[in-house]
From TrEMBL:
It comes from Oreochromis aureus. Keywords: Cytoplasm, Repeat, WD repeat. Coiled coil: none annotated. It comes from the Eukaryota. Pfam families: WD40. Its main location: cytoplasm. It is found in: Cytoplasm. This is WD repeat domain-containing protein 83. WD repeats lie at residues 21-62, 63-104, 105-146. Belongs to the WD repeat MORG1 family. One of its GO terms (cellular component) is catalytic step 2 spliceosome. One of its GO terms (biological process) is mRNA splicing, via spliceosome.
């Protein structure tokens, strides 16, 4: 006799606040998980970049070297290097262990909004208010970028790299996808300034958020609109959006102090997470677990699906 299959459980959402970290670096401009989700990076308006333990909320290292507020950061696949960008027009490559500046990359004509390593951490890609994406070789001693992508007609607000593809969002209202192997450029016009772009985990779709308070999920190969997500407020700030680690939900920051979480397929609002009274500036979803980071003013919040870890922490101390 065959037993019926157990009902698939509804995916859990990170709705419990596990801890709040007071970063003490001015306003936190961006918060990012590292590659395995064990650490987090916080970018401060006081020119500093900080590395924290995600599970304990303890400060591990402070990186100082930028001349103005830090706007974005990314960790390498082996956790040995960090790249960061700033309003001081520079990109810095850091040695994680020593906290020293390995390279300071100059070339952008204005503040640098976004930065990311490629998969092997051999190239850093940076997007700036000057409308260009610059590609820097991390192993070379040359100070010029190996490539400059200048197709955008306005500021580059966001970029993501996945294998041989680069996705960029610009204030000119266009999402551009570069196939770096084939040398091709695909453009989707979204009519409103783009604040954030990302690939889905399966690599089949792109998600973009824009200043008309709408997120759009597009089929990567055809450009067909698969979903629209609304209800949050995004009118004047450059705020993050992302997908959950299993592509089940779409998440976005909002100017009303909440994180909005929609069911990807149905488009219905699954969770409206109350973070605080100010603008939720940044968010980052854990690469494999149901964990979420949010940044508001000078603090970072860590959210999880269950409350249990709080007890563990209390026992441990």
């Amino acid at each position: 006799m065959a037993f019926p299959q157990p009902r698939p459980q509804a995916p859990q959402l990170p709705q419990h606040l596990l801890r709040t970290i007071d970063c003490q670096q001015g306003a936190v401009r961006a918060v990012r998980f590292n590659i395995d989700g064990n650490y987090l990076l916080s970018c401060g308006s006081d020119k500093s970049l900080k590395l924290w333990s995600a599970s304990r909320g303890t400060l591990l290292k402070t990186y100082s070297g930028h001349g103005y507020e830090v706007l974005d950061a990314d960790g390498s696949y082996d956790n040995s290097q960090i790249c960061s960008c700033s309003s001081d027009k520079t990109v810095i490559l850091w040695d994680v262990a020593t906290g020293q500046v390995t390279r300071k990359l100059r070339g952008h004509a204005g503040k640098v909004n976004c930065v990311q390593f490629n998969e092997e951490a051999t190239v850093i890609l940076s997007g700036s208010i000057d409308g260009t994406v610059r590609c820097w070789d991390t192993r070379s001693r040359r100070y010029e970028p190996i490539q400059v992508l200048d197709e955008a007609r306005d500021s580059i607000s966001s970029l993501k790299v996945a294998q041989h593809e680069l996705l960029t969002g610009s204030v000119d209202g266009r999402v551009r996808r570069y196939d770096l192997r084939m040398g091709q450029l695909h453009v989707d016009f979204i009519s409103s300034p783009i604040t954030c772009v990302c690939f889905s985990q399966d690599g089949q779709c792109t998600l973009s958020s824009s200043l008309d308070s709408t997120l759009r999920l597009l089929d990567k190969s055809t450009g067909e609109m698969l979903g629209e997500y609304t209800g949050h407020k995004m009118k004047g700030y450059k705020l993050d959006c992302c997908l959950s680690s299993k592509d089940t939900h779409v998440l976005s920051c909002s100017e009303d102090g909440h994180v909005y979480c929609w069911d990807l397929v149905e488009g219905s609002l699954s969770l409206k997470l109350p973070v605080g009274k100010a603008v939720v500036q940044s968010l980052s979803f854990h690469p494999t677990e149901t964990r979420l980071l949010t940044a508001m003013e000078g603090r970072v919040q860590v959210w999880g699906a269950e409350q249990e870890e709080m007890e563990e922490d209390v026992i441990a101390t």
